[in-house]
């Protein structure tokens, strides 16, 4: 371990050649994700005038979480770099299709739903595969810093992607905006291919050939069992599941509705709201990358409580400036929560299980579309304020129950999850 007197620079991960290519590839991909989410979410809301269809659209982007563990299996078999490059090439093709439809005037909400559903089969696994690749290419003692800096790709994307996406859409229309998105995906694919990684994660292992001939379902079962029988990993995955169910819907899929119907603002206002959450998240990522000696599980618990508290206040706010402040706080806390979860999982997982562990972690994201769909119906039934209060209140209660159940693995000072 690195002593406090010799704490590494926050930029230390960039001394690793592979990381210097992966980080910008992840950054460009995340920028394109955020631009697409904002542009298409606004398009669906304006064209359909329905919050329920908006939540359906947002949910479709996460349907691939059901098969995310299989992406982990494939990544463990063929190599995470190769899998990630193929995924990003797929994004480019699908975005190019939307660009063509928009430029030719044939775009309709139905086409958007179909293409988003196809992309939604692949896109949810991107975060897990990139996390597994970071763990593969980085030394163990730089893992927290590398994951924290990697997280900034999503944070800066939500700032720059949201603002630039809103600006391009408002000024030039959907077709030109999608030309920029396609360019980002193509560049990300090429940069990913520049990462030098073995096609098989463990070529020196004599058992690899036999493992490749085994059933993928057997590998999947082993990965799920591995997480399920390791208490600190199971607790971390449950907290991730809960956060996606009860916290993320308010700051992700529902934000276009909140901006337009609650605050009466336009695409630019939506961009500011989305960016405020991302700025808080970016600050959290940078802070964690430069601070050493963190009790990670305790940080996860404290940050999750702070996240839900910020959302409870956000639910009562009626003005954009105040909403920006509490979305900033929510973003800051969620960054600390998600980085802590990733570190607990990657530190605990043995090398040949990392892809499958992150695949199971991505499976937890499936609760997000469930939360979004339920929120759409609840908003129509009981209103936004009541729904936005119910979600974080329920999430906070259930999260504390998880901590109480696994307190020996999450809270005790000498628990492995709290190792410095």
- Which strand-content bin applies to the residues? under 5%
Question: Main beta sheet: strand number and arrangement?
Answer: none
Please count the beta strands (DSSP E, at least 2 residues each). 0
CATH homology superfamily name: MFS general substrate transporter like domains
**What overall geometry do the principal axes of the alpha carbons give?**
globular
Which regions are unreliable across 5 or more consecutive residues at pLDDT < 50?
Answer: 1-6, 199-212
End-to-end distance, in Å? 8 Å
| Share of helix, binned | over 70%
How many H/I helices? 20
Q: Please give the radius of gyration in angstroms.
A: 20 Å
Number of domains: 1
CATH top level is Mainly Alpha
CATH topology: Growth Hormone, Chain: A
Give the structural class.
mainly alpha
- Whole-number mean pLDDT: 83
């Amino acid at each position: 371990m690195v002593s406090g007197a010799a704490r590494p620079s926050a930029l230390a991960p960039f001394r690793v050649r592979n990381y210097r290519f992966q980080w910008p590839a992840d950054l460009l991909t995340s920028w394109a994700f955020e631009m697409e989410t904002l542009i298409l979410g606004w398009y669906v809301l304006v064209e359909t005038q329905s919050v329920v269809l908006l939540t359906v659209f947002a949910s479709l982007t996460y349907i691939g979480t059901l098969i995310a563990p299989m992406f982990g299996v494939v990544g463990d078999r063929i190599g995470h770099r190769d899998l990630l490059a193929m995924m990003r090439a797929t994004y480019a093709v699908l975005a190019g299709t939307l660009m063509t439809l928009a430029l030719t005037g044939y775009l309709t909400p139905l086409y958007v739903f179909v293409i988003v559903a196809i992309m939604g089969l692949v896109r949810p696994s991107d975060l897990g595969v990139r996390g597994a690749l970071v763990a593969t290419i980085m030394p163990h003692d730089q893992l927290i810093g590398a994951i924290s800096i990697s997280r900034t790709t999503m944070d800066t994307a939500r700032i720059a992607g949201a603002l630039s996406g809103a600006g391009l859409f408002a000024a030039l229309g959907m077709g030109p905006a999608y030309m920029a998105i396609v360019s980002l995906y193509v560049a990300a694919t090429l940069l990913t291919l520049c990462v030098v990684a073995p096609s098989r994660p463990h070529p020196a292992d004599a058992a690899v050939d036999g493992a490749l001939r085994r059933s993928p379902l057997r590998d999947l079962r082993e990965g799920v069992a591995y997480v399920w029988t390791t208490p600190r990993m199971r607790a971390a995955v449950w907290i991730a599941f809960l956060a996606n169910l009860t916290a993320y819907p308010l700051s992700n899929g529902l934000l276009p509705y909140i901006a337009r119907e609650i605050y009466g603002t336009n695409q630019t206002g939506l961009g500011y709201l989305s960016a405020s959450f991302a700025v808080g998240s970016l600050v959290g990522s940078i802070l964690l990358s430069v601070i050493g000696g963190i009790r990670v599980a305790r940080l996860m618990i404290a940050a999750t409580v702070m996240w839900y508290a910020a959302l409870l206040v956000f639910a009562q706010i009626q003005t954009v400036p105040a909403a920006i402040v509490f979305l900033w706080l929510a973003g800051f806390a969620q960054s600390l929560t998600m980085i802590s979860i990733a570190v607990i999982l990657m530190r605990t997982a043995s090398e040949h299980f990392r892809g499958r562990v992150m695949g199971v972690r991505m499976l937890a994201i499936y609760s997000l579309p469930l939360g979004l769909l339920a929120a759409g119906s609840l908003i129509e039934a009981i209103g936004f304020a009541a729904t936005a209060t119910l979600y974080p209140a329920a999430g906070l209660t259930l999260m504390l129950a998880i901590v109480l159940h696994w307190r020996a693995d999450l809270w005790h000072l000498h628990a492995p999850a709290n190792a410095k």
